[in-house]
Amino acid sequence: MNYIAKSGHKYIMFFGVLMLLAFGFDMFKLFFVAVFIVSLLFFRGKISKPLLSDPLAIISPIDGKILEIGSSDFDGKKCTRVVIQKSVCGVGLLYSPCEAKITEFRQRHGLFLCLKLKQALSLNEKAIYYFSKDGHKIAMRVIAGPLSRELSLENPQSVNLGDELGFLGSGQVMLFLPNDAKICVGVGENLLSLSTLGYLNKKR
């Protein structure tokens, strides 16, 4: 597990150099120390991996609050949509919600508007993962928010439960799960990444 997100290395190095210069010139030392510490906290990662052994488990891909759980149409099929708003102070590393093959990945560059604006969902930078697991089709859409200056995401062929997929400074993650998936969380609940979100039904 990474203690610091890869996309944050350049920012931390930049603020680290500024902090050293501040000490060298004996100017604004406390300010640049504070900025350096904030950058470390912003790009921090998890120390532990999920301990779940159930192959049907679905975990939360990011720290945040459940905004919505409901039925939705996705790619012409009925599914259960779970919307998670990434918390500002939460860990921004994005994790795979299950062990699966990634059948498709698409990313579209865009703006970084506040997600409270109606135009943000269509204009903001976004990406989507399509997962295939034991006959189940799962999708995860990532929408960047105003604190994300880029979506730095990886596209492996397959993932294990809780593998790192990238970093999201702010924004939303939408999970599109099979309609018969068992959801173990409720709207308004605050989740930690890698915690249990639900379970897939076993295919007969």
TrEMBL record:
Q: What is this protein called?
A: Phosphatidylserine decarboxylase-related protein
- Enumerate the InterPro entries for this protein: PS_Dcarbxylase, PSD-A
Residues crossing the lipid bilayer are 12-43
Keywords, ordered alphabetically: Cell membrane, Decarboxylase, Lipid biosynthesis, Lipid metabolism, Lyase, Membrane, Phospholipid biosynthesis, Phospholipid metabolism, Pyruvate, Transmembrane, Transmembrane helix, Zymogen
Report the superkingdom from the record. Bacteria
Query: Which GO MF terms does the UniProt record name?
Result: phosphatidylserine decarboxylase activity
Q: Which biological process terms from the Gene Ontology are attached to this UniProt entry?
A: phospholipid biosynthetic process
Keyword Lipid biosynthesis included in the entry's annotation: yes
> Short name of one Pfam family for this protein?
PS_Dcarbxylase
Specify the taxonomic lineage: Bacteria, Pseudomonadati, Campylobacterota, Epsilonproteobacteria, Campylobacterales
